Recover the amino acids of this structure.
């Protein structure tokens, strides 16, 4: 399958504003491109469903991040690293775990709802500010310096979709805040070791269908992350459930 072997593989369904990518760093580009088009406003709400939190803050240091004002510049900023090559990642590179804070720095993301099995605590703006001020942590000080002076970034945290969906207050979705659904298919691999343990396809399909219909999403981004799904076959298995739930054919997507 081309998407497995091509590190930069990505397709878009323009009418649905749905972007599908092999590597998750391209989600940043999708959000920022849609903001350029006027389909996302600043301080958007991000719902991030992923086996991993992807809350590494060094995305704020990617060269050209704050200066990018065109599609071409955004694509350059979002260019990631081929981890399969065995080569070291260039310094300050956009990666598969630091793209959220990159969009926080650009004020595109104002709140993130994390739905993730990962045990780690979510990195908050308050934690960064505390360490920058009270612990005089130079790295945290540099991160804060990259954020807007009035940054009010917040987050919510859920360990699984069931707890998230049972807690959803429909009124909170009836706001003017633009909304992004971001899914990494590896969320549906419950294993923490090299042997994958995928959820039954009926459960995956039902979860994806519920997410799709939760609200009127302004942008949808989907990462395949085949290595973290367990491999090519496992990723294709989850992808088939996604295509059915979202009623698309991946072969009809436009390259971007």
């Amino acid at each position: 399958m081309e998407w497995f072997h091509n590190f930069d593989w990505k397709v878009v369904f323009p009418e649905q504003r749905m972007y599908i990518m092999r590597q998750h760093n391209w989600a940043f580009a999708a959000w920022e491109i849609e903001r350029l088009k006027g389909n996302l406003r600043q301080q958007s709400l991000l719902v991030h469903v992923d086996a991993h939190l992807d809350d590494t803050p060094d995305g704020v240091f990617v060269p050209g991040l704050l200066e990018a004002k065109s599609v071409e510049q955004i694509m350059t900023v979002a260019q990631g690293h081929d981890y399969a090559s065995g080569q070291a990642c260039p310094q300050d590179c956009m990666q598969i775990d630091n793209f959220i804070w990159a969009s926080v720095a650009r004020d595109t993301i104002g709140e993130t709802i994390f739905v993730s099995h990962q045990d780690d605590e979510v990195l908050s703006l308050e934690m960064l500010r505390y360490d920058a001020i009270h612990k005089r942590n130079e790295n945290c000080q540099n991160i804060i310096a990259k954020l807007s002076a009035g940054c009010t970034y917040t987050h919510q945290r859920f360990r699984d979709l069931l707890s998230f969906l049972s807690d959803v207050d429909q009124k909170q979705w009836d706001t003017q805040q633009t909304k992004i659904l971001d899914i990494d298919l590896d969320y549906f691999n419950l294993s923490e070791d090299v042997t994958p343990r995928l959820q039954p396809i009926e459960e995956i399909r039902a979860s994806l269908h519920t997410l799709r219909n939760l609200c009127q999403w302004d942008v949808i981004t989907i990462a395949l992350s085949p290595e973290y799904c367990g491999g090519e076959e496992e990723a294709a298995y989850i992808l088939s459930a996604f295509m059915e739930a979202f009623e698309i054919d991946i072969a009809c997507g436009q390259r971007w």
Q: What stands out?
A: The first strand starts at residue 10 and ends at 13. The beta strands are 10-13, 18-21, 44-49, 109-115, 154-158, 179-184, 219-223, 254-255.
